[in-house]
């Protein structure tokens, strides 16, 4: 168990009546408990909060007249990940994959696993199935991409990234997800906060479904998976945008942080890959 | 209310142990009642049936050793669509869209609405919001595409179709879906059986979310929306494949039909567009 | 006849031994006479000058050791375009197109005319053939794109632009070229200097082959075709890069200008479209 | 020196007045001498023959009224390739590349070398420059693609092929060309006849520019480069279509062959890669 303090402050110049859909609150899951949290908006507009999907994603809807909008979120979150010996974790044959997980085998907007399946089998088909194979996929992504802010945009897909060999965290995750799905391993995108991420920002990483559980991976190696706080889970980044904005509005400031809580009894481990982190 | 008989017969040459995920059974929804149905497989292997998602999609999982596999499905389905005056149907502002519907605003594998949003606003932004605008989108798709079997494949997306101006039913649906989403109208893909479809085959069409309900559209104009029997609902065709096959297997025969039942009291209307069909 | 003064000043930080291929000098063509010119480099390295292709393109090759490289070009160019009544100009049937022109019917890297042919015929197939049809294509491009610096990059193609509906001068030209080729009208890319372009920069525009001659068009409407000074001609922008750089080098300053010469006897006309400008 | 007999017979159903641009005749080059040839058309329409470009490409233009058109070509061609020890062949630095060759460094429609440059450097950047590096690129293409007729179409590019890992001869050539260009090695497409190609067909292969000469490579390994008869040279397949057709016409038969001539004094060698074949 670890206690993590997360925070984000967003400022928008709202020029026309605008509807925001925010996904910035920590998700509620069996492995992630929100000990305390506070969301404040200035001006103090009405906030509707929904849980969407079945993975604990929280969504806030706000309608705002022209103004300067400040959004501030603070939370303390307790992480209770399963930690297992990564050597013991195999793959789940499709004949035993739970129905709710099957959707994470389908190609999606940014993870066109149908296009990359042959590539995946060629590169990783001979490897021993299980956690180590997903690790090998993430290692391949890490080794073959250059982390280059500005080299991709909101339209960039896993195929683009595989060709151009550059990207940022969301691109790393999309490519690893595509390669997993392409081999028949369910995989999904996770947006979140990450302890000690430099420079501080929201983070994108991934999960693969192995032996009946979801396991966390960060192909960028920028963080330890032991310190990841989930905001939301989706097929890819299309499902977990920080803010979906309908209206003429500009983001003018964004400050994000995630740190171990002062009274954290169980410091966040480094990610050695020997200890696998399961989340559901 | 209409009674429709649907049937499909599929034959596969199974060369290695193969897992099939079938989506061929009629969905269970408040507006579609399965009066009777029978699924038989020869050889008589064990069939697991799941309901996946929240829209009544039925999925069968079967594991088969090398053989000739014959799958036969028969059902009688009662359609109880809402029928409303299409002139009365407006759009749902995003501030009032139900949370479960928001996912159908996101871009997906074959409906990259993010890429087509500017195009959509340019073409349809000046039209009066509501049912008639979605109809205008479907009309545009019908007018600008040529229905050309073989002109697209399993990788073809709405962007491809918008450029090449040819496609089949799934492509028509993907393009119409993308244009709707691009304008902020939730839209989703429906796979199904269609009365009087020529040549007989599975069909792909779409739904748009308007004034709090889902309404059916078939941009190919090959069928009447009053005679559409839903198999499954998804973001796009990736979610409702007839058969997802893991193994070395070839489809050697496929026969599909949908006809009005002999004791159908309420014949299927022609689709004039004046009477809108709501499904949920 | 018009006299135009053109100038460009480029500064590079050269960090490793670097080979530059420059295309910044005014082309030599029957319709464009270089009255005087001067190219100076500081440090004063050896410059090889080649004429490449058959359209008067000048190319400079320079090999430079690490330094700050300043490139300065000044020229006075006399334009002697043909000016004709645009109403009299038809299209050249492929049965009469000169062999050297046929290559400009082929698709190229940024002008994938094969993908856009059906679109082109659908939009422009009913129009009367000739100059006015190419003008209609350029008008369509102008009307349907937003000129948005930063919205495209060096990989952006005509297909991308047709979907996303934004671009800069090279994108406008690529799309107009593709649509012309898609209809069987030879079209090519021209890089050059443009009188009164705001903000001052190199410019990209296009030519279409009609009735046995090449005619200039600028679908951005940012300039008058009467004041365009050709640097080079190619299938698309891939052929006429300002600088192709092999080495670790960064452009730190670029100043470009084109103005009517003080002793210009024949002021540059506005581009009304009534008077067509032929260049070869 | 080898003597090769080549032949092709094409039959078209011409439904409307149609203009054909054929590229089926053997090219005239210093290394390829056409000893005898005959082109006959039935009905006996007028044929215009042009040499296009500077590499000996022959182009025939024919205008045909509705009919059944039979095109028959026979030629005996003498190949006089240079044969050199492949170990002695280095790369040409861009500072010494002849100006006419520079165009073959540019990206083209089907060989988007700009997109694949980073990939190329990552895979092949550490290899010793020269013939062996181009051979390594061709080996990589051979090893990572499956030769699968029908898996690609006229729109398929090198990027597509690199992702999907299947293709036919033109796709193999496009990918190898792109990877060469991406590393700064000029490369171009060659269409031709190939001795002993099974099944008999036109063939597509490639050349790379090394140490001041063009060298032949066939990444499909379906043929010996010693038995390749050039029809035409281009940036990619867009430049050397067998037939460019303007009109409503269908190809109903195509028979192609290339065999060693009965009085061939110098049998075609196997392609061991030890002996490099230069063509210009």
Overview in brief:
The structure is a homotetramer of 280-residue chains. Chain A has helices at 99-102, 113-124, 131-144, 158-164, 169-182; strands spanning 2-14, 18-22, 32-42, 48-52, 57-64, 67-79, 82-85, 146-147, 166-167, 187-194, 203-210, 213-217, 228-234, 243-246, 249-260, 275-278.
Describe, in plain words, how this protein is organized in 3D.
The structure is a homotetramer of 280-residue chains. Chain A is α+β, with helices and mostly antiparallel strands and 280 residues long. Chain A folds into 2 domains: 98 residues, Sandwich (Immunoglobulin-like), CATH 2.60.40.2250; 168 residues, C8orf32 fold, CATH 3.10.620. Chain A has 5 helices and 16 strands. Chain A has a 4-stranded antiparallel beta sheet with strand order 3-6-1-15, with no helix packed on it. In chain A, strands 4-5-2-14 form a 4-stranded antiparallel beta sheet, with no helix packed on it. In chain A, strands 12-11-10-13 form a 4-stranded antiparallel beta sheet, with helices on one face. In chain A, helix 2 packs across helix 5 and helix 4 crosses helix 5. The longest helix of chain A is centred in the middle third of the chain and has 14 residues.
């Amino acid at each position: 168990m670890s206690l993590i303090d997360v925070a984000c402050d967003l400022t928008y110049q709202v020029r026309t009546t605008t509807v925001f859909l925010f996904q910035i609150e920590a998700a509620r899951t069996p492995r992630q408990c929100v000990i305390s949290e506070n969301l404040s908006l200035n001006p103090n507009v009405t906030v509707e909060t929904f849980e969407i999907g079945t993975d604990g994603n929280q969504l806030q809807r706000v309608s705002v007249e022209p103004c300067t909008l400040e959004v501030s979120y603070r939370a303390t979150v307790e992480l209770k990940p399963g930690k297992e010996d990564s050597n013991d974790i195999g793959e789940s044959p499709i004949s035993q994959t739970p129905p709710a997980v099957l959707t994470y085998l389908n190609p999606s907007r940014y993870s066109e696993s149908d296009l990359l399946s042959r590539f995946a089998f060629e590169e990783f088909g001979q490897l021993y199935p299980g956690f180590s194979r997903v690790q090998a996929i993430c290692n391949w992504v890490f080794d073959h991409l250059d982390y280059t802010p500005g080299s991709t945009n909101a339209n960039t897909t896993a195929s683009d990234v595989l060709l151009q060999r550059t990207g940022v965290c969301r691109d790393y995750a999309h490519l690893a997800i595509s390669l997993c799905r392409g081999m028949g391993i369910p995989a999904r995108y996770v947006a979140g906060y990450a302890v000690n991420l430099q420079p501080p920002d929201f983070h994108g990483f991934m999960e693969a479904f192995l032996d009946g559980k979801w396991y966390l991976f960060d192909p960028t190696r920028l963080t330890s998976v032991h310190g990841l706080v989930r905001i939301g889970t989706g097929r890819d980044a299309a499902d977990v945008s920080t803010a979906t904005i309908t209206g003429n509005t500009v983001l003018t400031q964004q400050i994000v942080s995630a740190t171990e809580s002062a009274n954290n009894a169980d410091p966040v481990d480094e990610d050695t890959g020997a200890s696998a982190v399961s989340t559901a």
